[in-house]
């Protein structure tokens, strides 16, 4: 068992969470609704697994009862018991299948970014003096034991390296800040209760797309110009290698795609340069 996870009882809060009012829970929900990145919840892996194991044992008992009835034969009374047993099997199997699907789906959720957890922690610790329902539910912050594997981000979109870099820097997020009239009243710059800086992820994605297209054009034009004027075979190969390396870093760092697609993109780029090189007399 991992020492940093909440499955280890030593890392959990020792006191029972206090009762919270509906207005406090509504305030947490309103805050989480400001950004899908804040939709972070506990996985409760141990509870999920214990629940599935309990259902599994129930099904084993039902399977044993069915085998016993089939081996004993059926009478009038046994027929009624058989219908009841089959109904129990059907409902238990439905619950078991649903629990397995839910467990597999929850396992597929990505971990939240650490800066998002830090923002949730900062907001929760400054809102109420006696604790907060959000922090009690997530079991954070526990000194030195905040483990992202225990948390699931269920609504955050997949982000590229640049997008995550902007997320972590307040000055960059300010560049893409959404218009004030589109912000919730409590998160506007003029509000004293403002706790976060909301920015447009669509604007970030558009800026990233423009940067990618410009970068790709530069990566095509610059080596073509350089290869046109170079006479040394060695320097042509060096230039080719440098631009292939830069293109690889660009595709890996900024583009979210599977490895095969990234390799295909780099191979296509290399093919363009090689065709130009061979048509230009070759190295």
UniProtKB/TrEMBL annotation:
Report TM segments. 210-230, 237-255, 261-279
According to the record, the residues making up region (Disordered) are 1-24
Where's the DUF6594 domain? 27-274
Query: In terms of domain of life, where is this protein from?
Result: Eukaryota
Q: Name one Pfam family in it.
A: DUF6594
Instruction: Report keywords, A-Z.
Output: Membrane, Transmembrane, Transmembrane helix
Coiled-coil stretches, from where to where? Answer: none
Could you read off the lineage of the organism from its UniProt record?
Eukaryota, Fungi, Dikarya, Ascomycota, Pezizomycotina
Signal peptide range: none
- What protein name is recorded for this chain? DUF6594 domain-containing protein
């Amino acid at each position: 068992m991992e020492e940093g996870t909440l499955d280890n009882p030593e890392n959990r809060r020792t006191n029972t969470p206090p009762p919270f009012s509906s207005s406090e829970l509504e305030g947490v929900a309103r805050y989480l609704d400001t950004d899908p990145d804040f939709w972070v919840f506990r996985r409760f892996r141990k509870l999920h697994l214990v629940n599935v194991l309990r259902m599994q044992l129930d099904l084993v008992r039902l399977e044993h009862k069915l085998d016993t009835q089939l081996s004993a034969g059926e009478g009038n009374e046994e027929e009624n018991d058989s219908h009841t047993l089959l109904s129990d099997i059907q409902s238990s199997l439905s619950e078991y299948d649903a629990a397995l699907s839910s467990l597999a789906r929850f396992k597929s959720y990505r971990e939240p970014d650490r800066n998002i957890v830090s923002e949730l922690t900062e907001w929760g610790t400054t809102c109420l003096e006696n604790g907060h329902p959000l922090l009690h539910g997530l079991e954070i912050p526990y000194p030195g034991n905040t483990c992202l594997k225990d948390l699931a981000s269920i609504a955050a979109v997949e982000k590229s390296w640049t997008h995550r870099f902007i997320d972590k820097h307040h000055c960059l997020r300010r560049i893409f800040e959404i218009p004030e009239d589109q912000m919730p009243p409590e998160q506007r710059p003029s509000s004293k209760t403002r706790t976060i800086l909301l920015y447009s992820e669509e604007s970030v994605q558009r800026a990233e797309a423009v940067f990618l297209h410009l970068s790709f054009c530069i990566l095509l034009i610059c080596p073509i110009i350089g290869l046109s004027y170079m006479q040394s075979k060695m320097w042509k190969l060096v230039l080719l290698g440098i631009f292939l390396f830069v293109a690889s870093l660009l595709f890996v760092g900024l583009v979210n795609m599977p490895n095969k697609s990234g390799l295909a993109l780099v191979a296509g780029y290399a093919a363009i340069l090689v065709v130009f090189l061979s048509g230009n007399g070759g190295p």
